[in-house]
Design goal:
heterodimer, A: 309 residues, mainly alpha, two-stranded antiparallel sheet, 1% strand, B: Rossmann fold, 3 domains, 18 helices
Chain lengths: 309, 516
């Protein structure tokens, strides 16, 4: 992106951070919403990092092969469904622990993505069309910062949709019941395993769409280091957002913005603390966790049966 | 005698020759029960007598190995709880089937079998508010279940069944979590519905008072078999107890030694709680400065409705929860929950739900019994190696002395029934024989008569030997039987003190209900 904060001075940092929130937030948004859905049903999917990478690779490959980036997004979602189904099946076996299965799924997903992605490292695939929101400004830096991926709006819609599902639909209540007290849910005639299976698979599909953003947006290349651990960060973000889809959205924007603080300061000429500023989302997470946790209180909003059979 | 309409409304449910086997073990063996329309029927039995298994067969949770269920005279197999619901049969479980993080309204709506995929909350709310107008108890539809007291949860469970138009309601020990007045309110209302012909009730209970005050007929189970039954009017409590226990339950007198007022017990306070404060799970202060003295050789009881700080108090005393203010002192010296202080002060705790609060479920009975002493000789001689055979021998001895079943020191304690876990933990806490302070919380919750008597005897024995005993209980009768002084706890404070001899039940009830 042709961001030139140097021409705008310190204001450039603000523009870059806002632009970063619009771009960098997208993977966080989709993965955290997917994880939010999964965890609300009482299961944990740590494998989101693997799902994110598989989504990124698949979207890129299909976009390259078919010439249609939207086909790439769809293919990513399908791969997410499959990975989610594997995780759901695994973790519903009697002696399988969610966390252990999740770590296995990180390795499985990323290994698979690296293997199939080898031949796609070089080319440039067709990217998703961008929606210009900066037409009002005549500053090129602002204009380019405000050219937003359609996935951004889909992500926002998904967070409100998920909130609606949780509060206004039968299936949403079933998911919450399964996550909070599976025994009571069973007594109410809810098929807890089926509900959780669906929540995990759909959650992984959402996360995979977040992966599609990584490769179908500027600079539009596939590389193995492309996710940079965002899949894992997004899982932590769900805790930060107290399992609320709308707070997931806010947290994703915050993280996306924080993430671009380092690069934009660097382009301003602040070189010294480059890595410190790059670490700001992580430092931020830790600070929030320390501030909100207390040994005397249970985490508000946490599904009562999270990670339990 | 009874209106005709009712007979059409409430079903006639009959179970004939029900047998339910799990492997070789028959949990229910050839039991028949006839539940007439418009009746309030009691199902009595000790723990493990097969009551739950029988009703689970009626409700479709289990399929009976033999026997048939008849509904209004026709053989009707009940394949699933959904099927039972379809026939108008509903059940309120001992363990709540409410989703804690959801509101009351969401819980009521979630239970609807015909809930549409997309919920129209305006219509649902209107329906619920309309339903509540004619309902016996009022609850706030928008409050979260997790914030309700046990009594309120029980009411929501019953409301849920009524909302679903249940015509035949099974209640599994519904009053174990209620105050006496709450229990009377709930059962009285159900009795009223039965009299109006809108409901039939099958009540599983331990309490004869409830059977006598509210029920028409009774069926008694013992060890999976029918032990007797009949019309409540024709049975006395001791006759019913006889059926349950297989022997007449004598009116027992706990063998308390002379009360401290006229006995040579120390005037010195043994256990002192000084201005104890703590923060509850919800982040608000749960104890607002509790001051209490327990002398050696007396039992001090704390009564109260659950959720008024008793749990937090016991957790602070047991060291499970940090005090935010005040201190605990034994013989004038500050007591901290370290192994050293516990040992020096001979401080023992029998918390409620001992499987969760006082044992490691996956470890064996013998290991759990040894927790207090395992770092002392003869269990640990050479500094860090444990003498496993000494631990097992000690476990065996305690299993025999406290009649723990099954008598296997190597079984994981989590596999034992509730009563036997309680005995095992009691064995551990009283094993040394020398007790300075004993704190017990709801030690008899959900136990049968024999276990209750056993535990009461041990508590009194411990007191008579000169220990300071603090007994926190939701069962007022238990406190009035055992304690020398009784306090009422309400809203995180001790609000009332009395003695069993001078206790005014109405006043205690008022104090428990928060009118002070």
């Amino acid at each position: 992106m042709q961001l030139t904060p140097d021409t705008l001075g310190p204001w450039g940092v603000a523009v870059a951070v806002a632009g970063g929130a619009l771009r960098g937030s997208i993977p966080y948004m989709f993965v955290s919403l997917g994880e939010c859905l999964t965890e609300t049903s009482g299961k944990i999917n740590l494998g989101m990092e693997g799902v994110l990478l598989m989504g990124a690779m698949t979207a890129f490959a299909i976009s390259d092969l078919t010439g249609s980036p939207w086909m790439g997004v769809l293919a990513a979602a399908l791969v997410g469904l499959i990975l989610g189904a594997i995780h759901a099946w695994l973790t519903q076996q009697p002696a399988v622990n969610d966390v252990a299965a999740g770590i296995a799924m990180i390795l499985f997903g990323s290994g698979l993505a690296f293997f199939f992605g080898k031949r796609f490292v070089a080319p440039m695939a067709p990217q998703l069309p961008l929606i210009p929101l900066g037409g009002w400004s005549h500053t090129p830096a602002v204009e380019s910062a405000l050219r937003v991926s359609p996935l951004f709006f889909i992500g926002i819609a998904a967070s409100f949709l998920l909130h609606w599902v949780f509060t206004r639909t039968r299936w949403g209540l079933n998911v919450r019941a399964a996550g909070d007290d599976p025994q009571a849910a069973r007594a109410l005639g809810i098929d807890v395993n089926a509900v959780r299976f669906a929540a995990i698979t759909l959650g992984a599909a959402l996360a995979a769409v977040g992966g599609a953003h990584l490769t179908l947006y500027f600079p539009g290349i596939w590389s193995e280091g492309i996710s940079g651990g965002q899949g894992l960060m997004a899982v932590a973000l769900v805790i930060f957002a107290k399992w609320s889809p709308r707070r997931c959205l806010a947290a994703a924007l915050l993280f996306g913005g924080a993430q671009s603080l380092g690069p934009s300061l660097q382009s301003l000429g602040v070189q010294g603390y480059y890595h410190v500023f790059n670490a700001s989302p992580y430092v931020f997470t830790l600070l929030v966790m320390i501030a909100t946790c207390s040994p005397n209180r249970r985490l508000a909003g946490m599904p009562g049966a999270l990670g339990k059979k | 005698m009874k209106p005709q309409a009712m007979i059409q409304q409430t079903p006639h449910l009959e179970a004939r020759g029900i047998t339910k086997r799990f492997g070789d073990f028959a949990a229910v063996d050839n039991v028949s029960i006839n539940l007439l329309p418009g009746s309030f029927h009691a199902l009595l039995g000790e723990n493990g007598a097969g009551k739950s298994t029988l009703v689970k067969c009626l409700m479709g949770f289990y399929q009976a190995t033999e026997g048939e269920i008849r509904l209004n005279g026709l053989p009707t197999p009940i394949a699933s709880p959904r099927d039972a619901r379809h026939h108008g049969l509903g059940m309120v479980f001992q363990h709540f089937t409410l989703i804690p993080s959801m509101t009351v309204a969401e819980n009521l709506v979630l239970a609807r079998p015909d809930l549409p995929a997309v919920i129209d909350w305006n219509a649902e709310r209107a329906k619920l508010e309309n339903f509540l107008k004619g309902a016996p108890f009022q609850v706030d539809l928008s409050s979260r279940v997790a914030e309700l007291s046990a009594g309120q949860k029980q009411k929501v469970e019953i409301l849920k069944e009524l909302y679903l138009r249940t015509r035949f309601l099974i209640l599994d020990e519904p009053t174990s979590v209620l105050t006496p007045s709450e229990a009377d309110e709930v059962l009285g209302y159900l009795r009223h519905l039965v009299d109006k012909g809108e409901l039939s009730v099958l009540l599983i209970t331990h309490k004869f008072r409830e059977v006598q005050s509210f029920c028409d007929a009774v069926t008694v189970l013992r060890r999976g078999r029918l032990a007797g039954g009949g019309s409540v009017a024709e049975l006395t409590p001791s006759r019913m107890a006889e059926m349950m226990m297989g022997e007449a339950r004598t009116e027992r007198k706990v063998g308390k030694a002379a009360t401290p007022s006229n006995a040579p017990v120390s005037i010195q306070p043994k256990l002192r709680l000084e201005g104890l404060r703590t923060i509850g799970d919800n982040g608000l202060e749960a104890l607002h400065g509790v001051d209490l003295t327990v002398r050696a050789g007396e039992i001090v009881g704390i009564a109260g409705v659950s959720g008024n700080g008793q749990r937090e108090l016991v957790e602070v005393i047991a060291g499970q929860r940090e005090a935010s203010g005040g201190r605990i002192a034994v013989d004038g010296k500050t007591h901290l929950p370290t192994r050293e202080d516990l040992r020096n002060h001979k401080f023992y705790v029998l918390p409620e739900e001992p499987l969760r609060n006082a044992s490691v479920p996956g470890m064996t009975v013998a290991e759990n019994i040894a927790f207090r002493l395992f770092d002392q000789p003869p269990f640990q001689n050479s500094g860090f190696l444990l003498n496993r055979s000494a631990i097992a021998d000690f476990g065996r001895k305690m299993i025999e002395r406290f009649s723990i079943r099954p008598p296997n020191p190597d079984a994981p304690i989590g596999d034992l029934s509730g009563g036997n876990v309680q005995r095992a933990i009691l064995a551990r806490e009283l094993a040394s024989g020398e007790v300075g302070v004993l704190v017990a919380a709801n030690p008899c919750f959900g136990l049968d008569f024999k276990a209750v008597d056993f535990i009461h005897d041990r508590l009194v024995e411990t007191r008579n030997k000169g220990a300071a005993v603090l007994l926190i209980s939701e069962d007022l009768d238990e406190l009035l039987d055992l304690a020398d002084r009784v306090f009422v706890m309400s809203g995180g404070k001790l609000v009332h003190e009395t003695t069993p001899a001078t206790a005014d039940l109405a006043e205690i009830g008022r104090q428990m209900a928060g009118h002070h």
